[in-house]
Specification:
The complex is a heterodimer of chains A (377) and B (385). Chain A is an alpha/beta fold and 377 residues long. Chain A has helices at residues 13-24, 53-66, 76-92, 99-118, 149-152, 157-161, 172-181, 203-211, 364-368, 370-374, and strands at 4-8, 28-35, 70-74, 123-125, 130-132, 138-140, 163-164, 216-220, 226-230, 257-262, 267-271, 277-283, 287-288, 298-303, 310-318, 321-331, 338-343, 350-361. In chain A, strands 12-16-15-14-17-18 form a six-stranded antiparallel barrel. A five-stranded parallel beta sheet of chain A has the order 3-2-1-4-7, sandwiched between helices. The longest helix of chain B is centred in the last third of the chain and has 22 residues, at 259-280. By secondary structure, chain B is an alpha/beta fold. Chain B is globular, with a radius of gyration of 21 Å. Classes of the chains: A alpha/beta (377), B alpha/beta (385).
Chain lengths: 377, 385
């Protein structure tokens, strides 16, 4: 069926090939570059994100080559409110957000999709590596190294129904080769890795600029002893090892990690790696990608970070959240990260649901076998 | 395809295109002393005379530039630099200038520590002449130069340039006017209007882009922007684009010669467009001065719609127009002209400009009126993001 498709074009190779494939599939495609920065000029040099003037130009040239109309949509205000402000607020609350996931949830598949639908489009196509099967389920991409189903796991069934991921069945190197064959100049453009709105990659400086500096204590989580000081709890992430600036080594000589962050008294607690072990996770309100909630308990696999490790788990669900019992412990899981639940499948693991992590715990049984987890360091 | 964006650029007139192609086949740098050079120089000087004659300027007052923007920059910066002293460092402009002027003035403020006064306009976008009179009473000695556009590029409002000149003249303050939208569309008489400099551009009246000119009085000092061969009165350097200049002159001569009839035709078409748009979309707000206005300009706000969305939908339906707003990397900003006219941010984002030109016919209006209601309905449901 011929659809009117809006292709979100970041200026990178993936979204360009995705747009070209949508055209080849017979759809009526319009390319749109999302301007996400309020001051694009200030990002003119040095940025490797997705919102520079150069990227806008690259997207436009790709659209020319593909032969589709092209426009720039100004989403800077929405992006700032929903993604950048959320990023600040989460760090200020001692949590670790994933802004790409938030952008998909609030901008690409919400504000942009809504606007596209209102303007008469049927779907939004992006260059994400993920598959949508005939039943509408979101599945991992065939390229495990590029799979982005994790950052799409916040989409509701309605959003998914109007999304297209033309690259899910193709390995990345094949996409680059295809871009070359299609004469797209972005074929060799490097991938973007950094957070697009932090041009220089200095997250800590970015947060300090907004949230300020305030001296606080770094304490030993077990004894409460003050081990050092920091200039802002928001500079830390649970599981962080480097940059603690502790002068005295631990008594046992082993590295120490951030175990918890308490914004209210600006306190960062540290301890040994085994204290980061958790095997219970509780999330906020879940999103069910297939629509129907499954109360469980059911056996599944969960993923806690983009491109992170996969853990076999038992999940139970209620309307307020998901509870996951991991069958092997995880380390350094921070509140604010997203728990994504997959149903293993040889045809590509299917995403069942997701939720933002509120709380983690180490089950007594797991804690008793400390030695086992410690060997994995 | 219905092209309703002639204020952005208008198709080259067949006679201008002929002049371009004919001249482009000829060899010669107009600064060379040999026979080919002299032939090229002759083409340039004939063009200079034709433009002078069409606009009541002396040939020696025509300074060719590479664009209208360059002509505006040369005037704004050149007049300011030539008159600036320790105590005289204020540049006076209006709140509705094209970016070629507005950004040049802002640059003087940001980088050259000039004081800048942007004079307000009324709800039609017409200069508040009393504000200028007041300023001139208070601090005439601080002012290096005044700029006031002849016709606004967004809403088409004509400015009281002659009143500005009358107020400035007793103080000996030079006046520049950006007449890029005016020349060839309304009567422009350089000698009679009394300005010191006037910018015009080729591609707004049927000539090529990349050809512009500054009409500059011989006795007005103007510091150059570009240094080099000194080709244009030592005020502008750069090898002259002979075919571009020949085609530019042909377009100016043609546009001025046919202006009166064409203005009547376009005014009638424009009035028809306005009536039909209002009938099709009753809530559309017609912006700009109902009387003092360019013949080919119709400018509307469509409440609740984003101009960008409308533009995209009309484009898909084969109707080409403009939001009339400034672009930074393709990002639409609310129109500074509408904001200066007192519109809110929403109205300033919800505008569309339709501009007619020599190739416009009734069929273009038919296409617009057919596509517009659905586009407005869709854009409204998409809302202002």
């Amino acid at each position: 069926m011929k659809l009117r498709v809006l292709a979100a074009m970041s200026g990178g190779v993936d979204s360009a090939v995705a747009a070209a494939r949508a055209v080849e599939a017979g759809h009526d495609v319009t390319g749109v570059h999302l301007a996400l920065s309020k001051n694009p000029q200030t990002y003119r040099t040095g940025a490797r994100g997705c919102c520079t003037i150069e990227d806008s130009r690259d997207a436009r040239r790709a659209a020319d080559v593909i032969g589709i109309p092209f426009y720039v949509w100004d989403m800077a205000e929405r992006f700032h409110e929903d993604v950048v402000e959320d990023f600040y607020a989460e760090y200020a609350a001692g949590r670790t957000p994933n802004p790409c996931l938030r952008c998909n949830e609030k901008i690409k598949f919400a504000a942009v999709l809504d606007r596209a639908m209102a303007l008469g489009f049927d779907a939004v196509a992006t260059g994400h590596y993920a598959r949508k099967d005939s039943g509408g389920l979101l599945r991992r991409a065939v390229d495990p190294g590029k799979d982005q189903s994790y950052v799409l796991a916040v989409l509701t069934p309605a959003q998914l129904a109007h999304s297209m991921f033309p690259l899910g069945d193709t390995p990345k190197d094949r996409v680059r080769a295809e871009a070359e064959e299609r004469g797209l100049a972005v074929a060799r453009k490097p991938d973007s890795h950094d957070i697009c709105f932090i041009a220089d990659g200095d997250t800590s400086g970015f947060l300090k600029n907004r949230l300020g500096s305030q001296t606080g204590d770094i304490v030993d989580a077990a004894t409460g002893e003050v081990l050092g000081s920091h200039d802002g709890a928001h500079q830390f992430t649970v599981g962080q090892r480097h940059g603690l600036g502790l002068k005295r080594p631990a008594a046992d000589g082993r590295p120490r990690y951030v175990l918890s962050i308490t914004p209210v008294d600006n306190r960062v607690a540290v301890g040994p790696r085994e204290a980061l072990r958790i095997d219970r996770i509780r999330t906020g309100t879940p999103v069910w990608l297939g629509g129907e909630a499954r109360p469980g308990p059911f056996e599944c696999e969960v993923q806690l970070r983009a491109h992170g490790e996969v853990y076999p788990a038992t999940v139970t669900a209620d309307p307020e959240g998901l509870t996951a019992r991991l069958h092997k412990p995880a380390h350094g899981v921070a509140a604010g990260q997203t728990l994504v639940v997959y149903e293993p499948d040889a045809e590509g693991d299917a995403v069942l649901c997701s939720g933002t992590i509120d709380d983690t715990a180490a089950h007594a049984h797991a804690s008793a076998s400390t030695g086992e987890g410690g060997t994995g360091v | 395809m219905a092209y309703l964006d002639h204020a952005a650029t208008t198709p080259m007139l067949p006679s201008a295109l002929d002049a371009y192609v004919r001249t482009a086949r000829e060899l010669g740098n107009a600064s060379s002393l040999h026979s080919s050079g002299r032939a090229a120089r002759r083409t340039v000087e004939e063009a200079r005379e034709r433009i002078g004659e069409a606009l009541a300027a002396k040939p020696g007052e025509v300074v060719f530039t590479g664009s209208g923007t360059e002509a505006d920059n040369l005037a704004v910066k050149g007049l300011h630099w030539s008159r600036r002293t320790a105590t005289r460092n204020r540049f006076v402009t209006t709140a509705v200038e094209h970016h070629a002027v507005a950004d040049a003035v802002a640059w003087l403020g940001d980088h050259e520590r000039a004081d800048v006064t942007a004079l307000p306009v009324d709800e039609f976008g017409r200069l508040d002449v009393d504000a200028l009179a007041e300023l001139l009473d208070e601090r005439p000695d601080e002012i290096t130069a005044i700029t006031c556009m002849w016709a606004n590029n967004e809403v088409g409002t004509l400015q009281p340039v002659e009143e500005v000149v009358a107020l400035a003249a007793p103080h000996g303050i030079p006046v520049h006017t950006d007449a890029i939208q005016a020349v060839g569309h309304i009567p422009v008489d350089f000698a009679a209007c009394g300005v010191d400099s006037l910018a015009l551009s080729g591609h707004k009246l049927g000539g090529p882009a990349g050809a512009g000119a500054l009409l500059l009085r011989r006795d007005t000092a103007c510091t150059p922007l570009l240094h080099g061969g000194g080709q244009e009165r030592e005020i502008r350097s750069g090898t002259l684009d002979v075919p571009g200049i020949a085609a530019f002159a042909e377009a100016v001569a043609h546009a001025v010669r046919t202006r009166a009839d064409e203005a009547r035709r376009l005014t009638a078409l424009r009035d028809d467009l306005v009536a039909r748009v209002r009938a099709a979309v009753p809530e559309a707000v017609y912006n700009g001065d109902p009387e003092h206005r360019l013949p080919g300009n119709a400018h509307f706000s469509f409440p609740g719609c984003e101009g960008d969305a409308l533009l995209m939908l009309l484009d898909a339906a084969g109707v080409e127009c403009a939001t009339g707003s400034a672009c930074t990397a393709g990002i639409a900003q609310p129109s500074h002209v509408l904001l200066a006219m007192g519109s809110g941010d929403g109205d300033a984002r919800s505008s569309l400009r339709f501009t007619l030109g020599w190739s416009t016919t009734e069929a273009d209006l038919d296409a617009l009126v057919e596509a517009l209601p659905e586009a407005v309905e869709r854009a409204r449901s998409a809302g202002l993001s």
